[in-house]
Amino acid sequence: xxxxxxxxxxxxxxxxxxxxxxxxxxxxxxxxxxxxxxxxxxxxxxxxxxxxxxxxxxxxxxxxxxxxxxxxxxxxxxxxxxxxxxxxxxxxxxxxxxxxxxxxxxxxxxxxxxxxxxxxxxxxxxxxxxxxxxxxxxxxxxxxxxxxxxxxxxxxxxxxxxxxxxxxxxxxxxxxxxxxxxxxxxxxxxxxxxxxxxxxxxxxxxxxxxxxxxxxxxxxxxxxxxxxxxxxxxxxxxxxxxxxxxxxxxxxxxxxxxxxxxxxxxxxxxxxxxxxxxxxxxxxxxxxxxxxxxxxxxxxxxxxxxxxxxxxxxxxxxxxxxxxxxxxxxxxxxxxxxxxxxxxxxxxxxxxxxxxxxxxxxxxxxxxxxxxxxxxxxxxxxxxxxxxxxxxxxxxxxxxxxxxxxxxxxxxxxxxxxxxxxxxxxxxxxxxxxxxxxxxxxxxxxxxxxxxxxxxxxxxxxxxxxxxxxxxxxxxxxxxxxxxxxxxxxxxxxxxxxxxxxxxxxxxxxxxxxxxxxxxxxxxxxxxxxxxxxxxx
Length: 537
What we know:
CATH class of the largest domain: Alpha Beta
Strand content: 15-25%
Structural class: alpha+beta
CATH superfamily of the largest domain: Beta Polymerase, domain 2
Shape: elongated
């Protein structure tokens, strides 16, 4: 032990008139950002300490010490339950050196960080729902997410966090803090609450966590900020000169500059299938700069793909050259479109209406599709606050816009493959809910399914079939002169490989035809219906 700390521990033990159960050194002297007049910071844990918690500022051997003296039971309440807003235990998120009773301090650190991982995991579940099953979460996320919460709830810690984790010793200090998180994570893996997927990478086992509801989680974090100030007030019941010393110290340290990006948006550390997740607020240009890691990018045309569509194609020029990015934005304005459709199709299907649920459904569904070996969009960035998904542009043609020069045999082969893939998806228990042919792209080799916001394991496969067949011929007949029966037959041939033909038969019901009678000639609709009935009955 450094002689400076040995001298201080002996001094405070004599001052307090009782033995010190456990002690640790923390703060600027340990984290490596101390100035010549910085205090030496201590936490002294005393069994049965009558004042419960109290700051002492003392000069010992020519060195200034700031000692936070705390009762052992009070300290453990903050470690195990955050009962005092983590005002004391929160110091263990930074870097520290145990001075007395290291085993006890390391145990408390592991408990604190295990609890933190559980709480942050529950917050992710409350925010992302079943999408959590696909999150690849680095251990750093739990550290920086908790630091960010503490800054928001108790701003005086801002300066020390920035200096500790983003100063000259930042990488070393991060690694020191992560050691305790590793011990906590290992215990959670043993309990089956986390799965280790790589070095310092984890997946939350959502079904094993017993989490409170979203409102309770938010209120709990809010209350901790209040409790921190209350606990600070209790600890500062000292003579005016000591209070002024502490106040001056806070002012002298205040600010700390702009928050580093990991403290502004720790969610960026999380990945889903190789794409980043952003929990912070961004506009389109900020998101694109983030994607390209290049502030010098130029944005060209931003083209909306349809009058009521939330999908945009963005032309971007960067040091990688000219590219196109697809942005799908989930807006509250879209609710009106879905409400109208829901009213019109009330007897047939149910839609996800709200932006957050459609956003999460689109993300999780695209991941499920890829797990099944079905091609869909490749995400780059999931922006939660913006409710937008940025993905790579798929260079191809929509099924609804197959060009006239495609040979008939080729077109029918494409439709047969569409049927086969839809049949397979139905066979494993999923439906699209909104299967228009413009949502399927052919790139000359493969089919890509997009617009998955209504994808579900609950729904009506017959509606998928009816929507695709009625819509397809309404649209594609304007470009290609395909005999209706051959078109329907090709689809059914593909579908029958793994799909249940009873769903095809039900698709010929008049109730599925009814929604299209205001947008297409009746003779075409009845020709499609009669072809279905002829081929499957």
